[in-house]
Amino acid sequence: MSRLIKSSLVLSLFVFLSSSAIAQMISPPNWSIQLSQKDIKVGDEVKLVFKAQIPIDWYIYSNDFDPDLGPMLTELQLEDKKSTGFTLVGKLKAINPKKKFDETWEGDVTYFEGSGSFEQTIKITSENINIEGFLSYQMCTDVTGQCVPFEEDFTIKATATVTKNPASVVDSEVISSADAEEIANEDSVDQVEETPNTEEVATHEQKRTYIDLEGDSDKEGLIGFMILAFLAGLAALLTPCVFPMIPMTVTFFTGRSKTRAAGIRNAFIYGFSIIAIYTIAGTAVAAIQGPEFANWLSTHWVPNVFFFLVFIFFAFAFLGMFELTLPNSFVNKMDEKADKGGMTGIFFMAFTLVLVSFSCTGPIVGSILISSAGGALVKPILGMFAFSLAFAIPFALFAVFPHWLNSLPKSGGWLNSVKVVLGFLELALAFKFLSVADQVYHWGLLDRDIYIAIWVVIFTLLGFYLLGKIRTKHDSPMETIGVPRLMLAISTFVFVVYLIPGLLGAPLKALSGYLPPMATHDFNIMVNRNPAMSEANQLDEIPKYADLLHFPPGFQGYFDYDQALAAAKKAGKPLFIDFTGHGCVNCREMEARVWTDPQVMQRLNEDFVLVALYIDERFELPESEWFVSEYDGKEKKTIGKQNADFQITKFNNNAQPYYVILDHNEELLVKPKGYDSNIVGFVNFLDAAKEEFGRR
């Protein structure tokens, strides 16, 4: 359940913010590029240091993972004809990047959040040093689902000495490409300054800023984050680790207050203690350990195996193997402290609640910390406050009104049935934690089909239990079942029926975030079963670059704008442009979740001519096809750079995925669309474009 809540939080946040980020230019990180030392001598080995200040909620990929995995690695490229006075020693090195297992790419990736640093060692070979080149990289965000490729041009001029005379040593300077020619005529450089860059509009004389999504999106995003954290706190109350604590709370507070006012005061102290413990603990983790700890908590085998074992432990307890009770000595000590003054006992009762419930709330708390990772401190504080507030309110109310417990159904066979059902659910959810560790460390224990088979068995047994066909040792004999229990049994068997095709390779899109990747599925008979997926649509001519680029299964189109526009005119259809990239995670998400929907697939294949313009494809075109950009004045030599320049200059946007639909006069039919997993919205987007095309 905690993982479900986590994914719901992230997905909801995507939907909440994505619409505000569609039609804006995204500014690059703020780079500082300089040599590691000022006193340079011929023969020295020095470091060329690249430091980036990355916008909040964004990250850039590093360069020390498998280049064939998918994301665009950070690379250093030098202008060989212009760079003199040094030789490279080794390769560009990332300094302490973070590492995680990415389920979309099905492999380990490294990345930087908040700030990042790279170093390239060089050996000085002559007095006059000139270093010109650029750093290419990809910046992405999980908030709006965007990925943007960038290049950071730089020129460094410095003078090295051949003697030990410090008077001849000159500082190095980082300058922009626009100023390189002017500075080349100077004899020395006196200070290090940051490389200027472009931002929202096409000009070369702007300072760098970070774009705020529609002005107040950070504020709105924070409010939305708190609301979702509050809902997560309410959901945590329904977990089997928390719900049994309610009677204990009532028992603890019943008869302990001599007056009504004292009872209300104690209840508020109890609720405030819960909030304080969660908020302080979560904030301390975020401030001291930072996002590294949150990532460790999410991906490392130690916490995941620990949570797996804890869930198994609670599952066995709820299924009746043993009883969960607090040690009498511990309860007696709390009673003694409460009798002496009450404050310490109330705090310890709140601490006990937090501790006992951690096996269920821990993953939810971890997901909040992960969602707020990136160096920010206010966000985790407010997130933990909202979560603990929702968590504390019911316990405080039961402390104020302990007689409310009398309105609940009396203990009996129904209560044991609830415990057993929760036990089955805990048992099923436990394997998600083990699956995470299995994927990250490649143990091969829980392939996708094995995982689905385990769930099929568990939920089938749960269905039979709800029908009374299976009984545990604490269950009472049951001759009839009520309608609610029957409805729950039907829902369980419906879920099992939904799971079964997954054993044969069905994608099970509703569970795609919780199941192991399809690549781990050993027995898949669904491949090529869908004609739309196995038979390519016939095109009038072979697409250019078809040997390099591809569409998702079931789709055919072009990879060159001019060729696609000519085909659209010939076919009498609108042109659907997909600005995408090899390393665009959310492009793959859209293709897997939205494009494969039958309504979307039919419309894309029948009503439009498709062109996929990859913005990170590095295939270098013939020199006759190179051009100088009107946007930044740089020469565009590759397919990706030309496509990216086209997206920027034509549509004032540089993020992917980005979907544009044009008529034959290259005019917009509808407002372009970015990442949006709402299938109905995407269908309406396509229908509106087709309808507008028919009117022109």
From TrEMBL:
<dbReference type="InterPro" id="IPR036249">
    <property type="entry name" value="Thioredoxin-like_sf"/>
</dbReference>
<keyword id="KW-0812">Transmembrane</keyword>
<keyword id="KW-0472">Membrane</keyword>
<feature type="transmembrane region" description="Helical">
    <location>
        <begin position="222"/>
        <end position="246"/>
    </location>
</feature>
<feature type="domain" description="Cytochrome C biogenesis protein transmembrane">
    <location>
        <begin position="226"/>
        <end position="434"/>
    </location>
</feature>
<feature type="transmembrane region" description="Helical">
    <location>
        <begin position="381"/>
        <end position="401"/>
    </location>
</feature>
<feature type="transmembrane region" description="Helical">
    <location>
        <begin position="488"/>
        <end position="508"/>
    </location>
</feature>
<feature type="transmembrane region" description="Helical">
    <location>
        <begin position="450"/>
        <end position="467"/>
    </location>
</feature>
<dbReference type="Pfam" id="PF11412">
    <property type="entry name" value="DsbD_N"/>
</dbReference>
<protein>
    <submittedName>
        <fullName>Cytochrome c biogenesis protein CcdA</fullName>
    </submittedName>
</protein>
<feature type="transmembrane region" description="Helical">
    <location>
        <begin position="301"/>
        <end position="326"/>
    </location>
</feature>
<feature type="signal peptide">
    <location>
        <begin position="1"/>
        <end position="23"/>
    </location>
</feature>
<feature type="transmembrane region" description="Helical">
    <location>
        <begin position="413"/>
        <end position="430"/>
    </location>
</feature>
<dbReference type="InterPro" id="IPR003834">
    <property type="entry name" value="Cyt_c_assmbl_TM_dom"/>
</dbReference>
<feature type="transmembrane region" description="Helical">
    <location>
        <begin position="267"/>
        <end position="289"/>
    </location>
</feature>
<feature type="domain" description="Thiol:disulfide interchange protein DsbD N-terminal">
    <location>
        <begin position="42"/>
        <end position="155"/>
    </location>
</feature>
<dbReference type="InterPro" id="IPR028250">
    <property type="entry name" value="DsbDN"/>
</dbReference>
<feature type="transmembrane region" description="Helical">
    <location>
        <begin position="346"/>
        <end position="369"/>
    </location>
</feature>
<dbReference type="Pfam" id="PF13899">
    <property type="entry name" value="Thioredoxin_7"/>
</dbReference>
<dbReference type="Pfam" id="PF02683">
    <property type="entry name" value="DsbD_TM"/>
</dbReference>
<dbReference type="InterPro" id="IPR036929">
    <property type="entry name" value="DsbDN_sf"/>
</dbReference>
<keyword id="KW-0732">Signal</keyword>
<keyword id="KW-1133">Transmembrane helix</keyword>
<keyword id="KW-0201">Cytochrome c-type biogenesis</keyword>
